[in-house]
Specification:
Blueprint lengths: L4 E5 L4 H12 L3 E8 L5 H14 L4 E6 L2 H5 L29 H15 L4 E3 L4 H4 L7 H14 L7 E3 L7 H10 L22 H12 L17
Pathway: Purine metabolism; 7-cyano-7-deazaguanine biosynthesis
Keywords: ATP-binding, Ligase, Metal-binding, Nucleotide-binding, Zinc
GO molecular function, one term: ATP binding
């Protein structure tokens, strides 16, 4: 029986890197897809995703560049006129960093890539702390997208949309990643800066909190490292 294949939506961040490790641990051959869409830290994210593909010995690394999400705007990740907000880890509001319907765009590209390469699954690193603020990270969204994939691909195509962390916290992800020896030193999460990470945006705060909860030191460089544990 041939090895199964999985497309990993490789953002360059720690969640998708851990998803790649989980998929590889399950026996999947990795096809890693990274998309630059005009986000503030796109050069650093690309560099990180490419480094991860090398570390995981991925069968393929596909880098797609698009500009429609940045032209649409209405996100602090893509619009220079909007400021990236400081972290508010207790908020349930949709943050300014939300890119309208981004995950549907990314999953569509990943599904095309998967179908063209006879892949069996698409992995995305979304987790429970994401879906409290991002509507396209909710379990119902992934269930609905699975239906779209089932209906919209060839009859013989079977691609599973895998969001293995959808009920996990960031701390759970970091703990599993450390077990799997994920190269977190070549991951990037900061919404604001390409180096060093700011330490105060939502993405930095959730990441630092996860490592602090585990009494581990995050291996990337930060301008500041606030204490985010209670």
């Amino acid at each position: 029986m041939s090895e199964q294949r999985a497309v990993i939506l490789a953002s360059g961040g720690m969640d998708s890197a851990t998803a790649a490790a989980v998929a590889q641990n399950r026996g999947y051959e990795l096809y890693m897809l990274h998309t630059s869409y005009g986000q503030r830290t796109e050069s650093k994210e690309y560099e990180s995703a490419k480094a991860q593909a090398e570390r995981f010995d991925a069968a393929d690394f596909l880098h797609l560049t698009t500009d429609h999400l940045s032209k649409i705007g209405d996100s602090s990740l893509t619009d220079d006129e909007m400021e990236v907000e400081d972290a508010d880890l207790d908020s349930d509001e949709i943050p300014g960093s939300y890119v309208p319907f981004r995950n549907a765009n990314l999953l569509s590209m990943a599904t095309s890539y998967a179908e063209a390469n006879d892949c069996d699954a698409v992995f995305i690193g979304a987790h429970s702390e994401d879906f409290s603020g991002y509507p396209d990270c909710r379990p119902a969204f992934f269930d609905a997208f699975q239906t779209i994939v089932d209906v919209g691909t060839k009859p013989e195509t079977e691609i599973d949309i895998e969001a293995p962390f959808v009920e996990w916290s960031k701390t759970d992800i970091a703990e599993r990643g450390i077990e799997l020896e994920v190269p977190y030193n070549v991951t990037w999460s900061c919404y604001r800066d390409e180096a060093p990470a700011c330490g105060t945006c939502d993405a930095c705060a959730f990441r630092l909190q996860a490592f602090q909860n585990l009494d581990e030191r995050d291996p990337i460089q930060y301008t500041e490292r606030p204490e985010y544990t209670n």
